[in-house]
Amino acid sequence: MDTKILKRFVWPVAALIAVLLIGTIGYRLIAGPQYSLFDTFYMTVITISTIGFGEVIEVALIPGGRIFTIFIAIAGIGVLFYIITNLTALLVEGEITKSFRRRKMERKVKDYKDHYIICGSGDLGSHISDELTATKRLHVMVDISKDTADKFLDTAKGRAFIEGDATDNDTLLKAGIGQARGLFAALGDDNQNLVVTLTAKQLNPELRVVSRCNELNNSDKMKKAGADAVISPWLIGGLRMASEMVRPTVVSFLDIMLRDREQNLRVEEVHISPAFSGQSISSLKLKRYPKILLLAVRTGEEWTYNPPEDHVMKPESTLVFIGSPKDRQELAKELNRAV
């Protein structure tokens, strides 16, 4: 069960146990050894639960018996009423259901491999999630906001969400950082993104980290912390506005390509497997994938644009092409099968 729910009941339950112990021992001391501990415990229970069964112990005949019973009744009934009230509120608010759903999602994420982690569920994180969903890439979103977590549970549509502080090791471990392929540090504060980047790289040095950076002078700090790429939303926004002005047709083409859900085309990349090293582009038989348009081949820092069919690939080569997520998955599967 959720830790917050447990904390909500820990003190009332402790108080109820204390009342039961005080009542059991108190009745034993007042009534004498002729009554067993079970008798005195039973007397305490029927007193605080107001069941109304006949008294096991004749408190009217015992000095102080009625006063002690009044104390136990008020204390016990008060604690029971508080517990029942909170339990009813939880059932009405759906807290227990949401707690079980969160735990179920955490168990689901434990099986994730080669997925992506998005730290921050704001506008930027939501857009990242939308793109990963559109391109059929497994991912999990992490955010500390409980309200956001509850809202996400209602509208997730198969997506995964972990509630917690992304700067905390335990939260990232719950998100499966050890088996993840990449992480987006998309929080609104540069300092938090810096800590997330540093923590992520410590937990998984092979992880690729892309970090948001609001202040450009923090970019070098992000890279020193381990970020593989640093993105400034304001810089990207400025470049986009300039492109809208000077090359509107190109921007329109890219927008239509991103919005077209039927074609769902993207500029994608696939790494060359060792099995195809030394072979030409023609050996890939890309014509089997009618929606793939090969744009370039990157080998180290060298780019070959519109490569010819006889272009020889190397182990570190990467194909860059326009294609659908399905074509990307099939091509990547084919390359991996050839390893």
Structure, described:
The protein is an alpha/beta fold and 339 residues long. The protein has three domains: 3-93, Orthogonal Bundle (Helix Hairpins), CATH 1.10.287.70; 111-237, NAD(P)-binding Rossmann-like Domain (Rossmann fold), CATH 3.40.50; 264-337, Alpha-Beta Plaits (2-Layer Sandwich), CATH 3.30.70.1450. It is 51% helix and 14% strand. It contains twelve helices and ten strands. It has a six-stranded parallel β-sheet with strand order 3-2-1-4-5-6, with helices on both faces. Strands 7-10-8-9 form a four-stranded antiparallel β-sheet, covered by helices on one side. The radius of gyration is 32 Å and the shape is elongated. The relative contact order is 0.07.
